[in-house]
Amino acid sequence: MVLKPKVAIVVGAVTSALIAVVITVVIVVVRNKAANSSSTSAATVTPTPSAATTGTVLDTFPLSAASTVIVNAQQQPVLLHGLNWPAHLDYMIPEGLQFQSLNVIVSNITALGLNSVRLTYATQMVDEFFGDSVDTLPSRTNRTLDGFVPTNILAQIMLANPWISSTTTTMDIFDRAVNSLAQAGLMVILDNHVSRAMVCCEDNDGNGFFGDTYFNITRWIRGLEFIAGRYSNVSQVVAISLRNELRTQITDWQGAWYTNMANAAVVVHNANPNALVIVSGINYASTLAFLQDDPFNVTTTYPALKKKIVYEVHWFSTAYSNSTDWTNDPTACTTVTALENENAGFVLQSSYSYKAPLLLTEFTVNTDLFTSAPSWDHNFFECVMAWTQPNSIGWLQWVISASYYTNVTKDAGLGLLTTDFSGPSNQEYVNALKNYL
Ligand SMILES: *[C@@H]1O[C@H](CO)[C@@H](O)[C@H](O)[C@H]1NC(C)=O
Ligand SMILES: *[C@@H]1O[C@H](CO)[C@@H](O)[C@H](O)[C@H]1NC(C)=O
Ligand SMILES: *[C@@H]1O[C@H](CO)[C@@H](O)[C@H](O)[C@H]1NC(C)=O
Ligand SMILES: *[C@@H]1O[C@H](CO)[C@@H](O)[C@H](O)[C@H]1NC(C)=O
Ligand SMILES: *[C@@H]1O[C@H](CO)[C@@H](O)[C@H](O)[C@H]1NC(C)=O
Ligand SMILES: *[C@@H]1O[C@H](CO)[C@@H](O)[C@H](O)[C@H]1NC(C)=O
Ligand SMILES: CC(=O)N[C@H]1CO[C@H](CO)[C@@H](O)[C@@H]1O
To answer: GO MF annotations for this entry (predicted)?
Structure first.
């Protein structure tokens, strides 16, 4: 996640009026093996309403891409509504376990009404599982928490989670987190967030682009294959994303992007043919615009991927200009939405030959400041929802809580849960969210 404003690369024609409403369909929101329905509009998919209220995990999964809509096994549209849960920072442990048990945190996520979680991880976790160090770091094998997590934090983690001991490994905890989320009926996206475990993301942090100091391509591919395969029998693990927020100062980055993303998509698909494969662009996942003229055509060679490729984009309120005035400028939403369509929404256009579903995998709202009255965060939130909902774009908010083991003030204000993960940070915001679930 990066909140710095970014100048987007904009290539190709302006794509303004986006998706024509073709037919009204029932959106199935999968939660706890049941399903809730609400009406919205999407292109091209005809649902089978009879299964909507009786859907079970077995007949719900896997998910697929049907044109520009994500559908379940019954071809019913599925909208992912979720949050990001970081596990990619220095200790490679899902955040919050020093405050609450894993199960309490998971139940607090479901209590928000959300149906999915983007759980992040560092390639370093997999490297250490294989007994390899991250380049330039000391070698570790199956890193246990002992001597790694500071004693005071480890003591708190073990107190709140008696199943964790000092010899538990980071991979053990990740396994348990994935399984707890799945058992709670949440859909899980496993997101390769960084290579070296650390706060993400900066221009020169060594994690930004293929071949950067920590971004070893061989290990990245191995990590994706490992993670995709390891959870391939957990049907709620519905998607594997290839890489978070690629970024580079290299001007000639296209070749590396197309080659590596195509290789990775095939490797992930072979390791878990059921999972959606989530593909991000460049500039901190802010733009896919380069695909307008030069599409990601791996599906030509591997047609099976046609039903699995999903694009992702990140959109923050400061994305296009430091001076966008979400509080007072009544044209802000229209202006910025047009840019969002140029950068990402074009993948949904019926005229685009490589059309595919789109997920907004990160956006932020300052939940502390959010009110039901018009204001910066309220207006931005409504603008995001006005873009995602009618276009069947699923969304996952950054972040579960503004609290990290290594920094309790980072992302201040942005949490959906309180900083001790004990419940919603702002009920007024949860109420606003529920209008869109
Ligand atoms: C790490 O532990 C797993 C079993 O949990 C094992 O399969 C793997 O080989 C171990 N890695 C190393 C390098 O010993
Ligand atoms: C990347 O990792 C592989 C596998 O561990 C290793 O053989 C290779 O030397 C690494 N490449 C670089 C550039 O460090
Ligand atoms: C998935 O397979 C692993 C062993 O590879 C097993 O421990 C786990 O219980 C399985 N999970 C499910 C949901 O079947
Ligand atoms: C796929 O795209 C590449 C450029 O990225 C192009 O060279 C190639 O001809 C395309 N292949 C097909 C089958 O369209
Ligand atoms: C916003 O301001 C920062 C400096 O604070 C600058 O680096 C960045 O380029 C600006 N972004 C835009 C889109 O104007
Ligand atoms: C914690 O995050 C805040 C906000 O990004 C930053 O100002 C501060 O320097 C960070 N502290 C540490 C110890 O990294
Ligand atoms: C719905 C739910 O399980 N909420 C839990 C959130 O966390 C608090 C504090 O630990 C629990 O008391 C709640 O039960």
So the answer is: hydrolase activity, hydrolyzing O-glycosyl compounds
Whether 16 is covered by a domain: the verdict is no
Q: Is 388 exposed, middle or buried (0-12, 13-18, 19+ CB in 10 A)?
A: buried
The mean pLDDT of the chain is: 88
Does residue 270 contact residue 230 with C-beta atoms inside 8 Å? no
Half-sphere exposure of 271 toward its Cβ, with a 13 Å CA cutoff?
Answer: 23
Q: Which of 216, 217, 219, 226 gets mutated to test ligand 2 (max ligand atoms within 8 A of its CB)? A: 216
Give the distance (Å) from ligand 1 centre to CA of residue 171: 10
Angle 217-230/254-271 helices, nearest 10 degrees?
A: 30
Would you call the peptide bond into 201 cis, given omega within 30 degrees of 0 as the criterion? yes
pLDDT band at 137, cuts 50/70/90? confident
**Residues 420/403, Cβ–Cβ less than 8 Å:** yes
Asked if the structure places residue 252 within a domain, the reply is yes
The domain in which residue 128 lies consists of 23-36+55-434
The count of structural domains within the chain is 1
**Binding site membership of 409 for ligand 6 (Cβ less than 6 Å):** yes
Token pair in block for residue 275: 């999972």
Residue 400 within any structural domain of the chain: yes
Q: How far is the CA of 396 from the centre of ligand 3 (A)?
A: 27
pLDDT at 351 over 50: yes
Is the beta carbon of 363 within 6 A of some atom in ligand 1?
no
More confident residue, 7 or 241: 241
Is the shortest distance between the CB of 133 and ligand 1 below 6 Å? no
61 has a pLDDT exceeding 90: yes
What are the pLDDT digits (tens) for 154-199?
A: 999 999 999 999 999 999 999 999 999 999 999 999 999 999 999 9
**Helix 170-183 and helix 102-111: axis angle, to 10°?**
40
CATH code of 109's domain: 3.20.20.80
Is the pLDDT at 57 greater than 70, yes or no? no
